[in-house]
Amino acid sequence: MTGWTNGDHGEVATDLSGPAPDLGADYAAEAQRVRDAVAPPSGLNQTDLPQVLHTAPAAVALIDLGQGLVTYANDSASGLTGGRATLPLDIDAWSEAAGLTDLSGRPMRDTASPLSRVAQGIPVSGEPVAVSDAARRGSYASEEEREEAEGRLLWVTGFPLSEAVNADQRRLALVVFLQLSGAGAQRHLEMVRDRAVVATELSFTISDPAREQNPLVWVNPAFTRLTGYELDEVMGRNCRFLQGPNTDPASISRIRTALDEERAITEVLLNYRRDGTAFWNQVSITPVLDGGGRVVNFVGVQSDVTERVMVENERRAALAAAEETREQLRLLTESTQAMSASLDTTGVAEALAGIVVPAMADFCCVDLLEESDGTSSVRRAAVNHRDESKTDEVRELGRWVSPTDDGRDPIGEALSTGTPSLLAELPVRPAGIADQPDLLRRYEALRPRSAIVVPLRARGQVLGSLTLGTELPYGRRYAQRDLYLAADLAARAGLALDNARLYAREHGAAETLQRSLLPAVPEMPGMSIASRYLAATDGAQVGGDWYDMLALPDGAVGLAVGDVVGHDLRAAAAMGELRGVLRSYAWEGLGPATVVDRCDDVVQGLGMAAMATAVYARFERGEGGGWLLRYSNAGHPPPLLRRADGTVELLTGNLSPLIGATRAITREETSVRCGKGDLLVLHTDGLIEAPGADPDDRTQLIADTLAAQAADMPVEELCDRLLGMLGVDGLRDDAVLLAIRIEGEDGPAPV
């Protein structure tokens, strides 16, 4: 129906009046029935006409080309004449009855009207005409009526339906009127004209579902131009002849289902022309019903949308490439951030393994080269698998995660020579482990399909290797572009590993220096002493934390805890210098406040260090016996004193600015009497400054822990208990803990 209403107006359609093609007696009888129905100029039986005429949604008329008579008009076309025209009727008389004029208001009789041209067998692809009430009455329109006519427009399309083979046969033409009315009709005129021109290139077909295989019974010339098949090659055949080796069976199945269910469908599928060339065909098929609701025909519209599909495919490919590039950049960025966040090689390896699975692989392993005592070894630092239950299989297989049948060891090559390997297809049973049942069992349980091995290299040195693998049955086959991405990722990982190694060397050197500057805890008469030094493990470098304890010439016991500002080798070196200066002033027997002030003078005068916190204290014999603790605090966390009865005091007396901050303030000291069983605890800020924790809360935790312990708990055990309660794993700063318990009543010898 759509094919006849808006079809190819410039070509001759299938001959419905001439002899039917040799398609069998059934089709010949049907063609003769249609010819008999449209041939008589009078007594036309509408129900015998094709559905495309009398059920069309537009005004449709048939013209006898031999006599120039309108022989048939459907209800919409009859409505144009107001039912006053009795058919058959001369084309000009019918136009006047319908009130048709040109756009200037002149009657069709006085112009080379589109209807007159159609009546002469000349196709009209589309022209506008006006409807005028005055023209219906047979008088010329006034200016006002002409303006009204310009607002009531029809779009006229007409073309011959057949060619006469001999003089005894009739030729028919079809005319279609489309309504263009209301506001904006003139503005839509050009748009409709463009659509009509496009419609002339659309391919139309009509098939008959009553026949076996639902064969084609009518095609327009555009179909032959589109497909290359001539009329006599397609009539009576099912249009599956357009299908080929790459036609999507799913599309064919959907079309077949729609036809069986007698419903409309539109599909885009790959078809083939007569010469074998492929094209993308947008097929729209619509059922045509008779008055009883029975499907009598299927009308198909075919459009060559190859260019559109190719553009869409290119667009999708470009979007897919852009998405792939975006995902690769995201992967590289996230992996770099994750690996850079760790300052040890194992952390870098684990971060790398966590990123590539499942983003690039079903499983992976990271092997690192390590040197010890002049010998090299390989350590499997990290493994990962999409299925956690298979992680051990990857770990235990060793280098046989990526074997080859030619005996090569890709992981060994990557570690020794830095050679990457792309193993697109892994063997089902590697020859190298065929005689090793345990390895073979693990390999077959893992079911690797494809693998990539790339070296982890930085600054011209191979540090390890990364192995990526996919697993049967769903793992993809690696290609060259995957190798490029893996190599880029490995280069970033190598740099992160090298930075971690450099950090470990510097950190080790600084820690060694720092520990070498810390004294061994001396034995002091009447005291139990324990100390702990904890190096930072969570991102910070070694700092300037220290503690010291010495027996002074005057019989007193000097003790100090401090922290030089900074976290590097210079801070550790400055700590050593400051510790030496403090020991020299303490040896002279100076009071705590004086010692701290003298250290402040040296630091500021010599530029020894930026600043430092410190507590310096002296244990002396008190008047009347016992012990006297004198101390001075320069910006350091206050010491804690646990009495023998379990009460805990925070020694906050005479707090003063940091060493190196200012000399405008003269420091003072505080004295506290101590007795047998009292416990003094000093520490640096590394113990109380933790992520997400308040230092005051952690200080209170120390006090509560001290109060809860037995008075006679050994100081070594007490230090371990404190550190366990504080949770010191992953310290961001170095930390010092010094615990001293008074075991006797008598203090040091008097000065």
Automatic annotation (TrEMBL):
<dbReference type="InterPro" id="IPR052016">
    <property type="entry name" value="Bact_Sigma-Reg"/>
</dbReference>
<feature type="domain" description="PAS">
    <location>
        <begin position="216"/>
        <end position="262"/>
    </location>
</feature>
<dbReference type="InterPro" id="IPR036457">
    <property type="entry name" value="PPM-type-like_dom_sf"/>
</dbReference>
<dbReference type="Pfam" id="PF13426">
    <property type="entry name" value="PAS_9"/>
</dbReference>
<dbReference type="InterPro" id="IPR001610">
    <property type="entry name" value="PAC"/>
</dbReference>
<dbReference type="GO" id="GO:0016791">
    <property type="term" value="F:phosphatase activity"/>
</dbReference>
<dbReference type="InterPro" id="IPR029016">
    <property type="entry name" value="GAF-like_dom_sf"/>
</dbReference>
<dbReference type="Pfam" id="PF01590">
    <property type="entry name" value="GAF"/>
</dbReference>
<dbReference type="InterPro" id="IPR001932">
    <property type="entry name" value="PPM-type_phosphatase-like_dom"/>
</dbReference>
<dbReference type="Pfam" id="PF13188">
    <property type="entry name" value="PAS_8"/>
</dbReference>
<dbReference type="InterPro" id="IPR035965">
    <property type="entry name" value="PAS-like_dom_sf"/>
</dbReference>
<dbReference type="Pfam" id="PF07228">
    <property type="entry name" value="SpoIIE"/>
</dbReference>
<feature type="domain" description="PAC">
    <location>
        <begin position="263"/>
        <end position="317"/>
    </location>
</feature>
<protein>
    <submittedName>
        <fullName>PAS domain S-box-containing protein</fullName>
    </submittedName>
</protein>
<dbReference type="InterPro" id="IPR003018">
    <property type="entry name" value="GAF"/>
</dbReference>
<keyword id="KW-0378">Hydrolase</keyword>
<dbReference type="InterPro" id="IPR000014">
    <property type="entry name" value="PAS"/>
</dbReference>
<dbReference type="InterPro" id="IPR000700">
    <property type="entry name" value="PAS-assoc_C"/>
</dbReference>
<feature type="region of interest" description="Disordered">
    <location>
        <begin position="1"/>
        <end position="24"/>
    </location>
</feature>
